[in-house]
Hints:
The chain contains four helices and five strands, in the order H-E-E-H-E-H-E-H-E. It has helices spanning about 20-35, 60-70, 90-100, 115-125, and strands at about 40-45, 50-55, 80-85, 100-105, 125-130.
Amino acid sequence: RALGLDDLENKVRSQRPPTREELEATRFAWRVVKHVKSNAIVFANADRTLGIGAGQMSRVDSCRIAIWKAKEAGLSLEGSVVASDAMFPFADGLIACEEAGATVAIQPGGSVRDEEVITAANERKMAMVFTKVRHFKH
């Protein structure tokens, strides 16, 4: 099944595009988040996961769990990529991820509040990619 990773450079929705290194990490994080139970949030760099949050009723709670797990493991999220298996329905989850150190977000998009989330990314100088592919699994 298509992962939505083809032609990522043309799926950037933020003002700032990801760097080459960030794109590599973004592809890795997107492949990982596909296998995590919803509402899945994965923080990663190019070669490993840093924090995973899943199975919550709220996406922002999954973000908080992923951040907590990374900190418990002594891992820094500075400069990380965050992948969300489904859209960020509100900016709060994205903001929590950025405050923890994420510089790029990859998500399917498709929320009625996409523009609000994109604005939050732009205000924080984050890069954001929309795959238009939703992994969301129970």
